[in-house]
Automatic annotation (TrEMBL):
Protein name according to UniProt: RING-type domain-containing protein
UniProt domain RING-type: residue ranges: 237-291
SMART domains attached to this UniProt entry: RING
Entries under SUPFAM superfamilies matching the protein: RING/U-box (SSF57850), UBC-like (SSF54495)
InterPro entries from the UniProt entry: UBQ-conjugating_enzyme/RWD, Znf_RING, Znf_RING/FYVE/PHD
Length: 329
C-alpha cells in the first residue's frame, strides 16, 4: 500500500512538471514529495502563490492548500482556500494538483472584482441598509448600487478597470429621482474624488510624501452614498426645519419651495433663503444657520449696504401703507 501511494505521487509529480509549463501565467516554483508550490498570475492585482501539500494518505485525502498574495486580502484568500478544499474533496483518489491549480487560476479570471472585495464589504457593512442593493457583475467587472433614502433613490454602476487601483473606477448613473441639479453635483464630486485618488495634485507641496495612487472605489462610493444620497434624501431646510426636497420626488413645486444648494452644501427652500437674505442684520454678512459658514450664492451677490437700503425702503413702504390703512379706519 505504502509503495503504491508513493508511486502514485511520483507519477503525479512527473505529470505536474510536464503540465505546469503549458499553463499560461503559472510558474512552478517547487515540486517535491511533500508539496508543490506555484505562482499564479492573471493580472498585477490578481496574482498569488499556492502551496499544495500532500498528506501521508494522499491521494485518498484531499490536497491541503495554502495561499499567499501581496495584493489580495487574507479574507479573500481564506475564501478561495475553502473553495479549493471543497473542490479537492471531489477528486480524492485522483491526481488533484493540476485540477486545483486550474481551479484557482479560473477563479481569478472569472472574478475580477476579487481585488475590491474588502472595499465592497466595508461599503455594505458601514453604509448600506437592508433596502439598498449592491450587485457584483463579475463578467463585466462592474458593481451596481441602488441606494435609497426615504422617497429618494439613485442607482449607479461602477466599473473597476483591470489596472485598478492604478487607474480609478468609472461611474455611470442608471436611475435617479433627485433634482437634475443635485444629480450633476453628486456626479461631478464623485468623479473628482476618484480622479484625485490616482492623479498627483498639480500643485505639489514639497513637504508632502511622494504621491502614491490609492484605491478609489470606497472613497467615491462612500461620498455618493453617505454625503449625497443618504444625506440630501432627508435633509431639512435650516430655516423652516421642513424637508428641503419635496416629500414626493418629481412633484411640481411652487417656486418658493424649490431648493437652493449654497456654498457650504446645505439645502434651503428658495423662499426661506430669500426672506432670510432680505431680513436684517446685514452688516456682518449672512451665515448658514446649520453650520455657521458665510452664505455665498451667485444669485445673491449683493452688498450689505444695498441690502440695508432695500430693507429700509421696504420698511418705509410698509409704514406708508400702514398709515394709509390707519387713515382709512
Ligand atoms: Zn425652508
Ligand atoms: Zn451650511
Amino acid at each position: 500500500m505504502e509503495v503504491c501511494q508513493s508511486e502514485l505521487l511520483e507519477s503525479e509529480l512527473t505529470y505536474v512538471k510536464q503540465k505546469v509549463p503549458t499553463i499560461e501565467g503559472v510558474t512552478l516554483e517547487a515540486c517535491l514529495p511533500a508539496f508543490v508550490r506555484v505562482h499564479i498570475y492573471v493580472s498585477d492585482q490578481r496574482q498569488l502563490t499556492a502551496l499544495l501539500q500532500f498528506t501521508s494518505k494522499y491521494p485518498q485525502d484531499p490536497l491541503v492548500t495554502e495561499l499567499k498574495s501581496k495584493t489580495l486580502t487574507e479574507k479573500l484568500l481564506d475564501g478561495i482556500i475553502k473553495l479549493c478544499d471543497a473542490e479537492a474533496k471531489k477528486y480524492v483518489g485522483q491526481k488533484q494538483v493540476i485540477l486545483i491549480i486550474n481551479f484557482i487560476k479560473n477563479f481569478l479570471i472569472e472574478n475580477p472584482l476579487c481585488i475590491v472585495n474588502d472595499e465592497v464589504a466595508k461599503l455594505k457593512k458601514e453604509l448600506l441598509s437592508n433596502d439598498d442593493e449592491c450587485k457584483l457583475k463579475q463578467k463585466s467587472s462592474q458593481i451596481v448600487f441602488k441606494v435609497k433614502q426615504e422617497q429618494y433613490l439613485m442607482s449607479f454602476k461602477v466599473s473597476v478597470p483591470v489596472e485598478y487601483p492604478l487607474k480609478q473606477v468609472q461611474i455611470e448613473v442608471l436611475d435617479n429621482n433627485f433634482p437634475e441639479m443635485l444629480k450633476t453635483i453628486f456626479l461631478g464630486q464623485a468623479v473628482e474624488i476618484a480622479r484625485k485618488c490616482v492623479q498627483p495634485p498639480l500643485k505639489k507641496n514639497p513637504k508632502d510624501p511622494p504621491f502614491e495612487p490609492k484605491a478609489s472605489l470606497y472613497p467615491m462610493c462612500r461620498h455618493l452614498i453617505e454625503d449625497c444620497i443618504k444625506r440630501y434624501g432627508k435633509e431639512n431646510c435650516p430655516l423652516c426645519n421642513e424637508r428641503a426636497l419635496p416629500p414626493n420626488p418629481g412633484a411640481t413645486v411652487e417656486k418658493k419651495n424649490r431648493i437652493e444648494r449654497i456654498y457650504c452644501g446645505h439645502l434651503f427652500h428658495l423662499g426661506c433663503l430669500k426672506t432670510y437674505l432680505k431680513t436684517p442684520p446685514f452688516a456682518a454678512g449672512k451665515f448658514c444657520p446649520a453650520c455657521g459658514k458665510q452664505i455665498f450664492h451667485e444669485k445673491w451677490k449683493v452688498s450689505p449696504e444695498l441690502q440695508e437700503a432695500r430693507w429700509a425702503h421696504k420698511q418705509a413702504r410698509q409704514r406708508e401703507l400702514a398709515e394709509v390703512v390707519d387713515f382709512l379706519e
